[in-house]
Amino acid sequence: RTPANGSPGNDSPDKKRVKRPYQTKTFKVELSFAARIPMSAIAMALKGQESEHTQEAIRVIDIILRQHSSKQGCLLVRQSFFHNNPSNFVDLGGGVMGCRGFHSSFRATQSGLSLNIDVSTTMIVKPGPVVDFLLANQKVDHPNKIDWAKAKRALKNLRIKTSPANTEYKIVGLSERNCYEQMFSLKQRNGGNGDPEAIEISVYDYFVKNRGIELRYSGDFPCINVGKPRRPTYFPIELCQLVPLQRYTKSLSTLQRSSLVEKSRQKPQERMSVLSDVLKRSSYDTEPMLKACGISIAQGFTQVSGRVLQAPKLKAGNGEDIFTRNGRWNFNNKRLARACVVDRWAVVNFSARCNTMNLVNDLIKCGGMKGITVEKPHIVIEENGSMRRAPAPKRVEDMFEQVKSKLPGAPKFLLCILAERKNSDVYGPWKRKCLADFGIVTQCVAPTRVNDQYLTNVLLKINAKLGGMNSLLQIEMSPSIPLVSKVPTLILGMDVSHGSPGQSDIPSIAAVVGSREWPLVSKYRASVRSQSPKLEMIDSLFKPQGTDDDGLVRECLIDFYTSSGKRKPDQIIIFRDGVSESQFNQVLNIELDQIIEACKFLDENWNPKFTLIVAQKNHHTKFFIPGSPDNVPPGTVVDNAVCHPRNYDFYMCAHAGMIGTTRPTHYHILHDEIHFAADDLQDLVHSLSYVYQRSTTAISVVSPICYAHLAAAQVAQFIKFDEMSETSSSQGGGHTSAGSAPVQELPRLHEKVRSSMFFC
Length: 760
What we know:
By secondary structure, the chain is an alpha+beta fold. It has four domains: 13-27 and 128-242, paz domain (Beta Complex); 40-126 and 251-292, Alpha-D-Glucose-1,6-Bisphosphate, Chain A, domain 4 (2-Layer Sandwich); 339-465, Rossmann fold (3-Layer(aba) Sandwich); 479-616 and 667-726, Nucleotidyltransferase, domain 5 (2-Layer Sandwich). The strands form nine sheets. A nine-stranded mixed β-sheet has the order 15-32-33-34-31-30-25-26-27, sandwiched between helices. Strands 1, 2, 3, 4 and 5 form a five-stranded antiparallel β-sheet that branches. Probably involved in the RNA silencing pathway. May bind to short RNAs such as microRNAs (miRNAs) or short interfering RNAs (siRNAs), and represses the translation of mRNAs which are complementary to them. Residues 129-244 form the PAZ domain.
């Protein structure tokens, strides 16, 4: 037995042998019957007869896959499995590594029970000496420079092995004092009478003198604590090694994220051969539990037939045709479809080293070629040199004082030049000031290489924000979109974005974008609200307050009515992003109900027809062309073999996959009162991938969803949340339950910009 104020690790081996009989523990294990799951539910589901047992039965065989990988010592992340093989690791910097593994799960499809297998990547903590991890994590070159408060947060809950005993422990914290000074009571037998007496000894002296272990550098640094709350157990830091395959669950920096994407992408052929190899090596056919379920797995990929839809025709200014090739086009020698005038504007420069007048002149010249009249700016305002080191909100405040004093009235547009391309801390406060406080359209730039392409891209964004249109679909101008052009139709895009992993107290942001100026389907406006952290269902679609409704949908309905010649939509098409199959019923029963209530609240007798479509990007289905190194061409649709046995769903690759392997978007039609023909609906979805005003390419998911994502991300910057990812534990501890605490409200947009495409 050891005293309450702790011991450093194990006692000598002979003592341990004497004590062992007292330390034996008896565990009682109780097995209780939970449920009988009929595996026949899978066979019924394949015939299109789903029951409440279908998901459970598939879950059972998925668990068998997990158990199979667990026996091989894999790290399990839901249905993805990662082997401890250094050839699968890539260094991302900061003590973090990308680990490549594979996803494997069963799905009921039209061609029978299918095994869905794909390459998967997760982040792990770099194994090895704890000190090396801390140096890399804090980007310092000597242990003296380590911030130990940060280190404590980074190490909490990680597992280590200690030498020389090679025992595994979980880190609970660090010692208050350094290794030289951290004392504990050590009981020693005293002389002949055999009574043990406690002596105070430092952790350093104990390991060096009593255990005879040489410590080179641990003396000046805190010890690692692996004990219980009231009985700490300390080890000098140099005796501790992080064990492999421990997930890193904090958010990555921009650099780490781009490094992960770059190092984990694979061309189609490489991915195919890796997956074939994984299937052979995983030896599922030897798994007795799968055999007992009567499941054997074919060695080859499933063959499916797909169609390639023709790209929709686009129109530029003066009714000119835009020719698309491989899902891409350009505005060379063309004018924008509806060009705006950039007048009453100014430039502000937040200490960026850039020739501002050259940039302005280039913009004016490039704008002229695209049909945009860019007048000379009223003034170029440089930031006061004394403000450069000030906090971001102060810098923005000071800049706005200059804007107010140097301009005759409120400007219509402000071009803001930032010094950093990514993660500028001025960005959020600046956007909030412009969009929420003053109602001024603004465009931020951080020019590095200014060429014609760069200027055109900036002008596309400015034109869309100021109410112009860059290109239009021929079928919305003529108007001849089946079912949509005949009667007033509102298109909604809905998305919820959450804080980074481990940030458990950052509100989630819900955004709804709605189309305007029917019969157009290219113009949108957005409404955004905050809600409880990690809550996926949107809780503010309909918010009655007395005789008023403060919900997201009402704003879109009223804007559609006022912008579409005082017509109410008779049809509403909803695109919902980011929900899994287990949440489909909630989307139908909760969200769709709220949208219907918002309509009824405006007019009791109004009964629009609804079509509800869920778009999923986060899945593991990929398509390959047999015998070709290329990705599937843009416009590829697959609606057979690997789709649901009964429900209506399809996969679409609208975009050209330039790097890596194309990930199709999986569209599920959950509800369709408008009664689209399958081909018409697929054509509409395809066309909506071509109306994204920020780029001259088809995008991978319909534009309204992309806009909802952008709007949520931009407005989230308004409230500068503390960087909580540092403080949460590495294993993602400390989550609040969804819907528990009051949530910080987002500032509302100024009425002048509320209906603009500010998110472009």
